[in-house]
Amino acid sequence: MSKKDLRSMTQEELKKELTGAGFPAFRAAQLFRWLHVQAVRELNEMSNLPGALKDYLGENYDLSAAAMADRQISALDGTQKFLFAMRDNCLVESVLMRYRYGNTVCISSQVGCRMGCSFCASTLDGLERNLQAGEMLEQIYEIRRQTGEKISHVVVMGTGEPLDNYDQLVRFLRLVSDENGMNLSQRSITVSTCGLAERIGDLAEEQFAITLAISLHAVTDEKRRRIMPVANRYSIEELMEACRNYFDRTGRRITFEYSLIHGVNDLKEDAAGLAALAGRVHAHVNLIPVNPVAESGYERPADEHVRAFKMELEKSGINVSIRRALGRDIDGACGQLRHRQLSCC
Ligand code: SAH
Questions:
Q1: Were 66 and a residue from 106, 138, 245, 344 both cysteine, which residue would form a disulfide, CB within 3.0 to 4.6 Å?
Q2: Residue 317, Ramachandran bin (φ over 0: left; ψ between -120 and 50: alpha; else beta)
Q3: Rounded to the nearest whole angstrom, what is the distance from the C-alpha of residue 291 to the centroid of ligand 1?
Q4: What is the pLDDT of residues 196-235, one digit of tens each?
């Protein structure tokens, strides 16, 4: 049987575990700091804990520890891609991006993905397993450790569908914003989902101050089903209702992500449909010229076409941004680094 992962536990849970084993309650606060402030890799680095406690922890718990398996640095913009091997050797991809407003880490929420979006490299090898909350945190801590950089923003936009790993995602969000831990502002966190409508409803109840991004990519059910299998489970209507409810319950504006694919979803009628949907739920639109993945055969539209598509939306009063492509020289698309590594093993 696998052991409980220390870095995935709240301070309250640690307290229960430790006192249950006869250790004083105050040790839980010390342990939590080692796990989430100093974010050490080894129990023996926890210098103010007695040996007996460290022995007990070592025998009874796991300490999730991501080991760097590959690191690429973009010569163009300083973006860094990391490949981490987890305890069971599963490979997980994370990215450090530099923006004017601060350093952003993009983390993975699952090992692989089972959503099957046709343009995405992360889903090519299917889903291997869910990541634990501690393993999501480790990606941030390890990048911070390796680079010595301060991390001000986190996006859950790497490999995996975060709402398909709901419980661990919620645990991650609580831990990363815990004032006794990394204490990251929830406003600096974005969670991106392909649109599991029921889970969006659950997340609304949690009342986090995070930004929720919906990967929309098409504005009719028929077209969306062609590129995103999840559209067979939830119609756009159901998704819009979930978005509306999320906005009403949390007061947080939703973002629609829209990957522009040449000749597929970049027509004038697509822009009109997108403007109508975004207007309905007060969403901000983020256009992402598709990152071509060899297996998909999709192409990105010309830059001037992307700008024209943006203007169409703006004419309808929609707030639009175009995502800058970072790290084009280092396996740009999501999941490509991991996929390449798996394919050559
Ligand atoms: N499963 C989640 C998060 C992971 S993907 C989701 O679907 O939102 C993060 C974003 O990148 C999503 O909007 C996804 O659709 C988009 N994406 C994936 N592959 C892409 C590619 N090749 N080009 C452009 N965007 C891509």
A1: 138
A2: left
A3: 9
A4: 999 999 999 999 999 999 999 999 999 999 999 999 999 9
With contact defined as beta carbons under 8 Å apart, do 49 and 120 qualify?
Answer: no
Same domain, 123 and 252: yes
* Structural domain boundaries, residue 332: 67-344
Ligand 1 pocket test, candidate residues 120, 212, 287, most atoms within 8 A of CB: 120
Which amino acid, 185?
S
Active site residue 161: no
* Distance between CA atoms of residues 161 and 164, nearest Å: 5
pTM > 0.85: yes or no:
yes
Ligand 1 cavity residues, CB under 6 Å: 115, 117, 119-120, 157, 161, 192-194, 215, 257, 259, 288, 290-291, 293, 333-334
Q: Are residues 154 and 282 both part of a single domain?
A: yes
User: What's 175's domain CATH number?
Assistant: 3.20.20.70
pLDDT in tens, 177-200: 999 999 999 999 999 999 999 999
